[in-house]
Specification:
Largest sheet: 5 strands, mixed
Strand order of the largest sheet: 5-4-6-3-7
Strand content: 15-25%
Number of helices: 6
Mean pLDDT: 91
Number of strands: 8
Helix content: 25-40%
Distance between the termini: 18 Å
Low-confidence stretches: none
Order of helices and strands: HEHEEEHEHEHEEH
Shape: elongated
Length: about 180
């Protein structure tokens, strides 16, 4: 009822950068997306490509790891997954690791190997012992904990003032926003 006679089609993307590609190509008009890809596209286009219309979710991301990793010092030499290179959790992990004294690279090497991986594959790889942990949004944090025996090493809320941080915003193609204010 709220949409009137507007036909709504949905598309599913593993992470923000893929949704940005579709938005930039005009294949979609709007996306719920992490703040990092939204800010990246805004900066790269000089504010001309898209507009953040609203906040949608706060919180709900964490670094989950296998048994035997109990402190940041235990991460040296491990492999940690994120949903996609340059997505919000990827940036959060790399920033947190840098604060802990670790070096990473987009090539996947460094003190900690950060490997962008689709969330569903992350669960399987963790269950199979192929990765040591992942920085993920919900519901994947809970799925790794409940289904695969992971535990939370870092709740992303902990480093933020008052525990508040955006996880998802509503980003709309600028042309679409102009046509449908």
């Amino acid at each position: 009822d709220s949409l009137g006679d507007v036909a709504l089609q949905t598309e599913v993307f593993n992470a923000g950068p893929a949704a940005i590609e579709a938005l930039s190509a005009g294949a979609i008009d709007a996306t719920y997306i992490g703040p990092n890809p939204a800010i990246n596209t805004f900066i790269q286009s000089g504010g001309a490509s898209a507009h953040i219309i609203a906040g949608a979710t706060s919180g709900g991301a964490a670094l989950v790891v296998r048994d035997g990793i109990d402190t940041p010092d235990d991460l040296a030499g491990t492999t940690i997954a994120t949903p996609q290179l340059s997505n919000t959790q990827d940036v959060a992990l790399r920033s947190w690791l840098a604060d802990e004294g670790y070096e990473t690279s987009v090539a996947g090497d460094g003190d900690v190997n950060v490997t962008p991986t689709e969330n569903a594959q992350t669960l399987t790889l963790f269950q199979d012992g192929e990765i040591d942990g992942a920085w993920l949004p919900e519901p994947w944090v809970s799925r790794l904990v409940v289904e695969a025996g992971a535990h939370v090493l870092v709740d992303e809320a902990d480093p933020w003032p008052d525990g508040d941080f955006p996880t998802t915003v509503l980003l709309v193609r600028a042309e679409f926003a102009d046509q449908h204010p």
